[in-house]
Amino acid sequence: MNVLKRSLAVLSLISFAYISVQCKENKKDKSNEMVSEIKNPITIAKEAYGVTSDSINVESYTLKNEKGMEVTIITYGGIITTLKVPNKDNKIEDVVLGYNSIEEYQKSTPYFGALIGRYGNRIAKGKFSLDGIEYTLAANDGSNHLHGGVKGFDKVVWTAEVLEDTGSLKLSYLSKDMEEGYPGNLETVVIYKLTNDNELEVSYEATTDKKTIVNLTQHSYFNLSGDFSKPILDHEITINADKFVPVDAILIPTGELKDVANTPFDFRVAKSVGQDIEVENEQLKRGLGYDHCWVLNNQNEGIRLTSSAYHKESGRLLEVFSDEPGIQLYTGNFLDGTLPNKQGGTYGHRTGFCLETQHYPDSPNQKDFPSVVLNPGEKYKTTTSFKFSVK
Ligand code: BGC
């Protein structure tokens, strides 16, 4: 009896659940009648991940598809801790930087794999005005505000719910009025959905009860080689953008949108990250490499292909689809070999790149940039999807 009780206690303690999600799909049979067929099983496994320094339990959820692609997301920061995809020989390896424990994530992270909010990217001096009221946010990046502040969405614990019928994980968070200095109670929902096409879709929704600003994104660092000791300079990138957003010395947009033609910022045709990253260029100097937002083409088309990254040796191709107007390519310029690498060793210079779909930096202070204002009664809605294949 005691043994039974103990096993039950252990079981509930580690809170392990294994949910097989059977996505039903209607299909026509030969006689043209609609029949219902069970197809596309996505499995979702929940496990205890750890406990935060303020004693909050953190769970992990692993979504796996029938091709063996799997993604693990933790409720702390909605962080993607691992993302495993096949290479051209069908070897499944992890392609995102991160850590192995909650302690490491809490100690110091350059936003590895995290959800970013309320505002992805920089706001000059952390100040903006709405209807004549000036708001002041934390200056957590020199004199600027970056990625939501001291305790942004990357450092809060989200409430998780498995959506069995779609093979998705729903994360919710209520950011209270004036949290990190932002006005309005912001009800935020992020849904991670895995498909059998090796696609991870991330959809975001938010509503507010007071006029506010929102610009959410996902901050995964990719290294498609699967070997985190290798720099990503050999990855070939495309970005479907004729213009980019030049920045000043502290990475705040100058307000100009500049043509990429004849600059190192032209990724309209595939080019390796390393090809032009060291050329003499004032913008590259300021970013210490690529750390800029591109003005994506076809902004009225909704979800479209924004960019891609290809790693020839492994054959892995990542395509990023989104309805956002901009994308920040950040080439891990601040990684300097001090942070522990989950494969052993440390994360060296430029061993990961981010493709962060978003509105342009400092939009609240730039009247000509697309608006990031959200009013009560409106719904903020945006979707980005990361599709993996081999070539
Ligand atoms: C920014 C970088 C920043 C990094 C955080 C990126 O999104 O563009 O400037 O250093 O996040 O580590």
From TrEMBL:
The keyword Cytoplasm applies. One of its GO terms (biological process) is galactose catabolic process via UDP-galactose, Leloir pathway. It catalyses: alpha-D-glucose = beta-D-glucose. Its cofactor is Ca(2+). Keywords: Calcium, Carbohydrate metabolism, Cytoplasm, Isomerase, Phosphoprotein. Pfam families: Aldose_epim. One of its GO terms (cellular component) is cytoplasm. Monomer. The lineage of its organism: Bacteria, Pseudomonadati, Bacteroidota, Flavobacteriia, Flavobacteriales. It comes from Lutibacter flavus. This is Aldose 1-epimerase.
